[in-house]
């Protein structure tokens, strides 16, 4: 984000009246990989902390083991989120694969059975920014999707409130084409086995189009087309995300999906005012969920940073306010407690 990003909008915000409580009260707080700003991402501890902080949905990224079990990892390559590189027994599993058109070297979930994966331990992916999360390195296993569902159901019983699931299929076409693993089929089977239907609070998301179309043909679950600030779907290399979020593009997405999950940079102009994306999506009958709200200075535009440290806490609350003013229906966040408090009216770390 450029240094001028948000400046005029922030000036206007300083003079404006606060967002009315009713304007923000329906905006979903989606725990991005759990409370990943405080615990190693995609661990049961991160999901439980997010739920305890009031998140409406928890978001597991799903990949599959060699023996066809869905597990939660940000990517199928796991050297950045587990201690696999320190395990001599698995040194020979290191390899290079071409994933979505680029070479990736490391260790891949699909080359491990669940039993083998269970011997590994999760670690903080961004220890230089999140030393708090790194304190928990080595304590948690890689969870299965079934365990995440069980946790959600247990927390629903404990709290008496509904807690949504927001799974993302990671690299589904690569896994199907190159590894023979159909994560669309695996996910539908697991949801059926868990008794989770289309009327339950669940969204299924992907950056790719083909898996969403397959899900639309086979189920009535709410589906979300993810779009980035650059590039396009790996399974449709001729398409660009930018063209998918115009009026015409949003109408085409509405043929198979129910929402767009958009990079914040697509939702706000350089001056912090709303882009046309929310208008286009809402006109097509689509919800819009923004990603990703984070507290660290490294992820915030200069006007919202406090101090010089990249890992220092800035003011994500102001970014929340701009997103709500833009009309989004939900926000992915690494810090559910901050987002829940911002929804209730807190500003810059103040209750």
Automatic annotation (TrEMBL):
Keyword terms, alphabetized: Glycerol metabolism, Hydrolase, Signal
Which superkingdom?
A: Bacteria
**Domain GP-PDE positions:** 27-343
- Give the signal peptide, or none: 1-21
State whether keyword Chaperone applies: no
Q: Which Pfam families match?
A: GDPD (PF03009)
Q: Which reaction does it catalyse?
A: a sn-glycero-3-phosphodiester + H2O = an alcohol + sn-glycerol 3-phosphate + H(+)
Task: Determine if Endoplasmic reticulum is one of this entry's keywords.
Answer: no
E.C. code: 3.1.4.46
For this record, an example GO cellular component is: periplasmic space
> Recorded GO terms, molecular function?
glycerophosphodiester phosphodiesterase activity
InterPro entries, per the entry: GP_PDE_dom, PLC-like_Pdiesterase_TIM-brl
GO biological process terms, semicolon-separated: glycerol metabolic process; lipid metabolic process
> What family does the Swiss-Prot or TrEMBL record give for this protein?
Belongs to the glycerophosphoryl diester phosphodiesterase family.
The protein, known as: glycerophosphodiester phosphodiesterase
Q: Which organism is it from?
A: Pelagerythrobacter rhizovicinus
